[in-house]
Write a structure and sequence with these properties.
heterodimer; A: mainly alpha; 17 helices; globular; B: alpha+beta; Rossmann fold; five-stranded mixed β-sheet; 14 helices
Chain lengths: 333, 493
């Protein structure tokens, strides 16, 4: 398929997933703060860090941070920026995604830009975040049922799961930024509450307890969210989906990776398959998560190179690449 | 045709209060109120409808258009404003025999224009023999020196033409202009037909309407037939669009889907070793034919406008190397230059030794001092048109203009006479059209589409554009016009 079309499809999906994850994190934090007194500087700033925002100069209080993460058009990872970018990508490929999906996405875009959305945000924050989460879920559902499951669809999945896997790793890493737990705090109600919050932001509370009845949250939450093989938001599950999508695109068998994205995905998934949480904790959870996040970024770059931009021209031995990148909507990630 | 006062508005017979325009040809009725011979069947069927059933059908049709997002955008409205092209449910009938004559006339005209284009870019015989003034041709904005000495694959310049026809008060079809660059609107013809078939399924059989649905296939076949030598089999054809903010983007996407070809933007294509490639996720794929919906100016920043980001660098090199077909060819703008238009009948005589079947509207060429003087004298009764504008922009409608507007145009004319032509106001024919006051006559034109590859094919009918404002002669969609389905009805048994 045309590289640009694949690229728009991939980014539409990533941005929708990003909007959902941002809403999840904001919502859970909001709820958590109702139960536990947490020092102001630990309340909201970590959320900026997991979204990759390191230059925030605004107020650290909840309203300011939520505003920045939800409504700020200058913040490329805010919810409204993500929805707009998803819609802009979709607009370019209306004939590839289904008419149903386009109409719905356009509807949500109009909604979030309407006074009604702002009103809901101010009087029922939690319902507002729920609606945002639903945007991605609904568009995915419509697309799954109405869009041909060909190459474009695999790019949809590739974008979706790469973004989600990366977000789960980031959400887990917030624990590192939030509470550098002094040893005596481990296992206290506050510590446990944080783990539960992290689980809930990934909709993993019930699956976790079903699969590991009687387990204390603690580090086994990290185990669950990184390594679980059937929970759809675990890092391993997501990257495995990416691997399948990449091989569906190329048509090559799984054990014979043929291009850069396939090779990198294979290595990361093999690592996730083999390593155990104890080893990760030993060498440092934060370090391991940082490594996973960096590797997903590298995979993102490899995807651009292999499918969207450079590969085409280079494969013809063209010395200089003069046209501007078609990735006008490239993300910060 | 008096209204039967005993009926309520809702039950009223649809054509009950219809009164023809006093000075125009009516497409359905004769002046004495009897139907035109070919319209009789249609009228018999439509007459069974009451106003209320007509309303129901109309609501159904509107719904189809809205749901399918059949829209266009207007340049003056900043991006994002999409409008529904207003659609009228009363078809515009054309008799089959009448159509056959129009078709022959269009074939003849496009044939001559194609020969003209080849001539002016090669031997310039028609200029040397003084049939067409050479300065008009060589100074035309549409003339491209880059095309001199080059013959496009298959010798075809005008793959798609949308010729605008109007009908004068005597009922004669006249050519108003030849759109030989990137004419649009055909998707509305196809969509209108889909809607009409949903709304009036039984009418189509009774009226024996000729099919329009073959257009995408005909275009695809025509483009395949003029693929460059050495093209793959089947050739790789793409539709090059300026992008989603273009007013005709809906049509680009529609045609690409129906022709089964890729819709691409300039940045999807690149030129290497004088060959054009499409960047795909599996690597580069060579492109043989580009159906481009982009003006010459924007095609290749290295050949034409350097600031164009819509085109493909070095596309002209690949084209001149004979490795890719561009449809339409580069440099066809000279053939639909409004200052060249007055000479088309002469071209037909010159190249084909035939008399034109379809005639032009009489035209004053402001580049000629005598004509200019006449035009300046009669600004209040003429239509003045800028020669390189389309879509009803840059135009003065004399009879409905103010003194200030006439003054303004007089200055423009004196400053740059080459840029203008003028024509007498032709009272366009009318067709019954639904309005707030029920069915009323509204002015219409007709844009048939002619597709040329190795052979030539004319879409039966075409886009009937209709003015929606009473008395208005401006039918362009960008100026608030609407459209109708055109029914070429078999008249032979």
């Amino acid at each position: 398929m045309i590289s640009r079309v694949a690229e728009h499809c991939y980014w539409m999906s990533r941005y929708l997933e990003r909007a959902e994850n941002t809403a999840r994190v904001l919502e859970v934090n909001q709820t958590l703060l109702l139960d536990f007194p947490i020092p102001m500087e630990q309340q909201w700033v970590p959320l900026l860090i997991i979204s990759g925002i390191h230059d925030y100069t605004g107020d650290p209080d909840g309203e300011a941070v939520q505003n920045h993460m939800t409504w700020d058009l200058d913040n490329p990872s805010s919810i409204i920026s993500s929805i707009s970018a998803a819609r802009e990508n979709a607009r370019n490929i209306r004939e590839v995604i289904s008419a149903d999906a386009w109409e719905r996405l356009n509807y949500y875009y109009l909604w979030i830009n309407s006074p009604g959305a702002l009103e809901l945000y101010s009087y029922n924050r939690s319902e507002f975040y729920n609606r945002i989460k639903r945007i991605n879920q609904v568009i995915y559902g419509i697309s799954e049922g109405t869009m041909s499951h060909g190459e474009a669809w695999e790019f949809y999945l590739l974008g979706k799961y790469l973004e989600r896997g990366c977000q789960t790793a980031r959400i887990l890493d917030v624990k590192y930024h939030m509470l550098l737990p002094r040893t005596e705090q481990i296992g206290t109600p506050i510590d446990n509450a944080h783990w539960v919050a992290i689980l809930m932001s990934c909709s993993g509370y019930e699956p976790f307890h079903k699969q590991r009845p009687g387990t204390d949250p603690g580090i086994s939450v990290a185990d669950f969210l990184i390594f679980d093989s059937i929970f759809p938001r675990s890092v391993r599950f997501c990257l495995n989906k990416c691997l399948l999508a990449a091989h569906a695109i190329s048509g090559r068998p799984l054990n014979r990776p043929g291009n850069e994205p396939e090779q990198q995905l294979n290595m990361l998934v093999s690592w996730l398959n083999l390593i155990r949480i104890e080893e990760v904790v030993q060498s440092g959870l934060h370090e391991a998560l940082t490594d996973v996040i960096d590797r997903t970024h590298a995979i993102g770059k490899a995807i651009h190179g292999a499918y969207f931009t450079l590969g085409m021209r280079q494969s013809l031995g063209l010395a200089s690449i003069s046209t501007q990148s078609s990735a006008t909507l490239v993300s910060l990630a | 045709m008096s209204n039967d006062g005993s009926l309520s508005q809702d039950d009223a017979f649809l054509f009950g209060s219809y009164e023809c325009h006093e000075r125009s040809w009516d497409e359905i009725f004769q002046t004495d109120g009897r139907p035109q011979p070919h319209s009789k069947v249609l009228l018999d069927c439509l007459s069974d409808l009451t106003t209320s059933t007509f309303f129901e059908r109309r609501a159904l049709a509107d719904l189809v258009f809205i749901n399918q997002g059949i829209t266009f955008s207007v340049y003056s409205d900043r991006r994002g404003v999409e409008k529904i092209f207003p659609f009228d449910l009363v078809p515009r009938p054309v008799g089959g025999e009448q159509w056959d004559r129009i078709e022959a006339g269009l074939n003849q005209r496009i044939h001559a224009l194609n020969l003209f284009l080849h001539d002016i870019y090669h031997d310039q015989r028609i200029l040397k023999e003084g049939v067409v003034p050479s300065d008009l041709v060589l100074e035309s904005k549409g003339y491209r020196p880059e095309m001199e000495g080059f013959t496009p694959p298959g010798g075809q310049y005008l793959h798609v033409v949308g010729t605008d026809l109007i009908r004068d008060p005597s009922g004669e079809f006249l050519v108003l202009e030849d759109n030989g660059r990137t004419p649009s609107g055909v998707s509305y013809v196809l969509e209108n037909r889909v809607v009409m078939k949903k709304v009036y399924p039984q009418l189509f059989q009774q009226c024996r309407v000729r099919r329009v649905e073959d257009y995408p296939l005909q275009l695809r076949n025509a483009l395949s037939s003029v693929a460059p030598e050495g093209a793959s089999e089947p050739p790789c054809i793409v539709l090059l669009s300026p992008g989603p903010y273009n007013s005709a983007y809906f049509e680009h996407s529609f045609l690409a889907r129906h022709m089964g070809i890729e819709l691409v933007f300039g940045r999807d294509l690149f030129v290497h070793n004088n060959r054009v490639f499409l960047g795909t996720t599996r690597g580069p794929q060579q492109v043989d034919v580009i159906y481009r919906r982009l003006d010459d100016d924007f095609l290749d920043p290295n050949a034409f406008r350097a600031d164009s980001v819509l085109g493909v660098p070095d596309l002209m090199k690949a084209y001149r190397a004979g490795n890719v077909t561009l449809a339409n060819a580069v440099g066809t703008g000279v053939a639909d230059d409004k200052a060249i238009y007055p000479f088309v009948e002469d071209m037909i005589r010159f190249y084909l030794s035939e008399n034109a079947i379809l005639h032009n509207v009489p035209t004053y060429i402001c580049a000629r001092p005598k004509d200019l003087a006449y035009v300046l004298e009669h600004l209040d009764s003429l239509v003045v048109k800028a020669v390189n504008e389309s879509g009803g922009y840059g135009m003065l409608m004399g009879p409905s203009s103010t003194k200030e507007q006439q003054q303004e145009f007089a200055e423009k004319l004196r400053a740059n006479p080459r840029n203008y032509i003028a024509q007498p106001v032709v009272s366009l024919s009318t067709c019954p059209t639904w309005t707030d006051e029920g069915l009323a006559p509204r002015h219409v034109d007709l844009r048939p589409y002619i597709v040329s590859g190795k052979d030539r094919w004319v879409l039966p009918g075409g886009l009937t554009r209709t003015a929606l404002v009473k008395g208005s002669l401006v039918v362009n969609s960008s100026q608030g016009g609407g459209s109708k389905d055109t029914w070429v009805m078999e008249t032979r048994p």
